[in-house]
Design goal:
- The chain is an alpha+beta fold.
- Helix content is about 20%, strand content about 20%.
- It has four helices and seven strands.
- The radius of gyration is 33 Å and the shape is elongated.
- About 5% of the residues have low confidence.
Length: about 140
């Protein structure tokens, strides 16, 4: 541009390979990717605002479908509560910051589902669960 010349007004804007010239005929399925995958209503409103001649019917966009995917819910546990004592236990092991006077670093808790009876043990190692708890 030379000194004293006015900049020319650009009527044709390029977005990727999509021409957004006023009045341009554009397939509706080409716009969502350029606009960030909004809803169909937003694509039409934006196209009308930009004075584009939108043609066609909105199809399924693979990228939109991937973005809306979610994993199925995982069941939290058995639906039926156990009625037989000792059949199902809920267990937890916690590490203590400090070692006890007896040398234990771990606390083990088991709750019987049927009777709601609780068993609490202090362990020196996690592997001691097999020896101490399963001996009941």
């Amino acid at each position: 541009m030379k000194k004293g010349e006015k900049p020319q007004k650009i009527e044709n804007e390029e977005k990727g390979n999509l021409s957004l010239e006023k009045g341009a005929k554009i397939d509706i399925n080409d716009l969502p990717e350029k606009l960030g995958h909004p809803s169909e209503e937003m694509v039409k409103l934006t196209g009308n605002y930009m004075k584009l001649s939108i043609q066609g019917k909105m199809g399924n966009c693979e990228n939109c479908a991937i973005g809306k995917m979610r994993q199925k819910n995982v069941e939290k546990g058995p639906k039926e509560k156990s009625t037989k004592p000792g059949f199902r236990f809920y267990i937890d092991i916690a590490l203590s910051k400090f070692t006890s006077a007896g040398g234990s670093k771990y606390w083990f808790l088991a709750v019987d589902e049927a009777t709601n009876m609780k068993f609490s043990l202090f362990l020196k190692q996690k592997s001691d669960v097999k020896e101490n708890f399963f001996g009941f």
